[in-house]
Amino acid sequence: MPEARDIILIGGSAGSYSLIINILESIPFNISSAIVVVIHRNDKYPTQIEKSLSLKLKRAILPAEDKVIIENNNIYFAPPGYHLLVEPNHTFSLDISDPVNFSRPSIDVLFESAAEVYTDRCTAFLLSGANNDGAYGIKRVEHFGGTTIIQDPLDALIDTMPSSAITTSSKAKVLKNKQIINYFCSIK
C-alpha cells in the first residue's frame, strides 16, 4: 500500500464505541486515506478490539505500532497505555509520557501531531466522552487548515467532549450520528 497522503482521525471516549462500530462498518473497502481511531482504553484491562473488529468487519483493523508507515486504506487503533503521535515522515510514534486530560492515549496528542504533519489533508472527528480531551486538538487541526467535525451533543451519550470542542472551535461542522455515518459511506 502507498503512504497515506490524507488522514482521517476519530476520537472518542465513554459512549462513543457503538458509533465508532457503525462508522467502521460504513467505510468502503478501498479508500485513499488512512483512518486512525483513538478511544480511551485502560491498559490494565486487555482488550481484543482490533482482532474482534477485524473478524466482524472482514478487513484488517490494525494496532498502531511505533515507526510504522501510515498507509492508505488502513484502519489503525491507538494502543492502550500509549500516546499515539504522527511523525513528519508519516510514521507513528508511541509515547508513555504523562496522561493528558487523564487519558493515555490522548485524543489531543494524536490530533495535534497529525494536524502539524498532514495540515489541510487532515480531517478530525470528535465523538462522545466525559472530559475535555479533543477540544484543543480540534482547534489545532483547524489552525493547520484541516477539517473538523464534532458529534452533535444531543446525539452523544455523554456530551462533555463534543460540547467542550464546540466552545473552542471556530470552523467545525456539528453533525448528527446519521450524517457522520453518511460522511464515511462516501469517502474515497
Automatic annotation (TrEMBL):
PROSITE patterns named among the record's database cross-references: CHEB
Gene Ontology BP term (one): chemotaxis
Catalytic activity from the UniProt record: [protein]-L-glutamate 5-O-methyl ester + H2O = L-glutamyl-[protein] + methanol + H(+)
One Pfam family recorded for the sequence: CheB_methylest
Cited InterPro entries: CheB_C, Sig_transdc_resp-reg_Me-estase
Keywords: Chemotaxis, Hydrolase
GO cellular component, one term: cytoplasm
Transmembrane segments: none
Domain named CheB-type methylesterase: residues: 2-180
CDD domains noted in UniProt: CheB
GO MF terms, alphabetically ordered: phosphorelay response regulator activity; protein-glutamate methylesterase activity
SUPFAM superfamilies listed in its UniProt record: Methylesterase CheB, C-terminal domain
Gene3D superfamilies registered for this protein in UniProt: Methylesterase CheB, C-terminal domain
EC number: 3.1.1.61
Active site: S13, H40, D133
Keyword Hydrolase among UniProt keywords: yes
PANTHER family assigned: PROTEIN-GLUTAMATE METHYLESTERASE/PROTEIN-GLUTAMINE GLUTAMINASE, PROTEIN-GLUTAMATE METHYLESTERASE_PROTEIN-GLUTAMINE GLUTAMINASE 1
Protein name from the UniProt record: protein-glutamate methylesterase
Organism of this sequence: Sphingobacterium olei
